[in-house]
């Protein structure tokens, strides 16, 4: 049963993007938030909310920051059990660790076990929505959606399609990728809080025929998102050039096959050519920044601030298990560190926005999740800003909310999640 509850603390909502406005002016703090019927009913002073909802329970969190649940815009739930596998770069990492693990998802029982394990890890880290890749096995999609449905989560996922350059047991065909994706889409898309995402893994593991088949499926279902990888590592880009000699660049391998559009999610997108940047701007496709993955696999430095200045839609993501963490706090910290290396440090308001409203916008869900405003779905995190002795002693010196939050972004983990709410229900004590 969704509750009728007022939470008090420092309730943060964004009135604008801190990339458009002055970073701190975009955020507003309120004393309390009223949750009712699974939605945010109102924000404001406690006395006012109490007067309009006298029956609501009140839970006080005087020092905590109450924010929208985190949104992870790119993750591979099947890579949960092989996270932190040592010492390879992208193509070797895929062949040595990822593909053998993904083969195990031929067993639906294993898929269900890992889907539940992954979603519990995500929730314990304050992540209430994610866009996940599954494996080529349709049952891996079913396992994920069933596990998300049980938890009441707004979740997005799709069958990963590959018909070349992968082990035989992990290959489908152009036709079966189309047929299986279509069947799953029809079964799950728009069911409760679930959305199907058309998912060609990346150009090296799809033939042009498979990309075209999935492009056709997207044209038939334009309300779906499409997710893939783009220009993550330099070696990968050279490989794509060999595999698609007629394409102008990596993005063109998607564009030629109907896989470029506003509802496209392009993971990594680090090493873009000017034409690719222009086309992404024109079409409104979203780039998904995966900072812990980019350092862990050694991919390169994504320049968030510059991409935002160019007007691009940018989401933030763990990319678990290429990414080295399930935590969007750790992911924000890594985005900050990469910003430092590119000479464009991100403000804490920008980091928090990327992990909530920014990722929600990338997923075209900005009107439902990712922000605490009346009418939005009540996916909420109550963040303890003094969750460890090291953080607490730095927090004690903070002079404003951003200084109070930044030590938790840089040093916090699941211990900072005092409460996580999904669709108006409290998930953890
Ligand atoms: N490119 C294609 N597949 C993958 C994957 O599973 N992880 C990452 N990081 N990059 C990819
Ligand atoms: Zn990925």
From TrEMBL:
Question: Domain named Amidohydrolase-related: which ranges?
Answer: 66-424
Name the Gene3D superfamilies on file.
Metal-dependent hydrolases (3.20.20.140), Urease, subunit C, domain 1 (2.30.40.10)
Required cofactor names: Zn(2+)
Tell me which Pfam families the record gives. Answer: Amidohydro_1 (PF01979)
**Enzyme class, spelled out:** hydrolase
The UniProt record lists the keyword Zinc: yes
**Has UniProt tagged this entry with the keyword Transmembrane helix?**
no
Q: How is the cofactor bound?
A: Binds 1 zinc ion per subunit.
Q: Do you know which InterPro entries this protein is assigned to?
A: Amidohydro-rel, Guanine_deaminase, Metal-dep_hydrolase_composite, Metal_Hydrolase, Metallo-dep_hydrolases
Family statement drawn from the similarity comment of this UniProt entry = Belongs to the metallo-dependent hydrolases superfamily. ATZ/TRZ family.
The protein depicted here goes by the name Guanine deaminase
**Organism of origin:** Roseovarius pelagicus
């Amino acid at each position: 049963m969704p509750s009728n509850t007022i939470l008090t603390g420092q309730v943060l909502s964004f009135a604008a993007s801190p990339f458009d406005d002055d970073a701190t002016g975009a955020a507003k703090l309120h004393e309390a938030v009223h949750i009712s019927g699974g939605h945010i009913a109102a924000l404001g002073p406690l006395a006012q909310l109490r007067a309009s909802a006298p029956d609501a329970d009140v839970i006080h969190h005087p020092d905590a920051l109450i924010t929208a649940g985190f949104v992870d815009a790119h993750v591979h739930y099947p890579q949960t059990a092989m996270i932190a596998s040592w010492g390879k770069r992208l193509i070797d990492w895929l062949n040595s660790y990822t593909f053998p693990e993904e083969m195990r998802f031929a067993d639906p029982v294993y898929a269900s076990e890992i889907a539940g394990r992954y979603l519990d890890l995500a929730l314990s880290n304050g992540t209430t929505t994610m866009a996940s890749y599954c494996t080529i096995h349709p049952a891996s999609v079913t396992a994920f959606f069933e596990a998300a449905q049980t938890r009441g989560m707004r979740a997005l996922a799709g069958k990963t399609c590959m018909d070349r350059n992968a082990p035989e047991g992990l290959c489908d065909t152009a036709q079966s990728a189309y047929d299986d994706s279509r069947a799953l889409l029809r079964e799950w898309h728009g069911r409760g809080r679930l959305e199907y995402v058309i998912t060609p893994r990346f150009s090296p593991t799809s033939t042009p025929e498979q990309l075209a088949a999935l492009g056709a499926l997207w044209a038939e279902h334009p309300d779906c998102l499409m997710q893939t990888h783009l220009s993550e590592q330099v070696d990968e880009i050279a490989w794509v050039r060999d595999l698609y000699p007629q394409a102008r660049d990596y993005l063109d391998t998607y564009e030629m096959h109907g896989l470029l559009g506003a509802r496209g999610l392009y993971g990594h997108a680090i090493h873009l050519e000017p034409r690719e940047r222009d086309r992404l701007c024109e079409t409104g496709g979203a780039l998904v920044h995966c900072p812990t993955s980019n350092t862990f696999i050694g991919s390169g430095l994504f320049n968030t601030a510059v991409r935002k200045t160019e007007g691009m839609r940018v989401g933030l993501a763990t990319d678990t298990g290429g990414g080295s963490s399930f935590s969007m706090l750790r992911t924000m910290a890594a985005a900050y560190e990469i910003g430092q290396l590119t000479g464009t440090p991100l403000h804490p308001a920008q980091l928090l926005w990327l992990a909530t409203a920014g990722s929600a916008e990338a997923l075209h869900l900005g009107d439902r999740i990712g922000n605490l405003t009346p009418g939005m779905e009540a996916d909420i995190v109550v963040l303890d800003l003094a969750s460890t002795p090291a953080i607490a002693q730095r927090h004690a010196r903070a002079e404003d909310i951003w200084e109070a939050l930044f030590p938790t972004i840089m040093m916090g983990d699941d211990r900072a999640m005092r409460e996580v709410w999904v669709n108006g229900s409290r998930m953890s004590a």
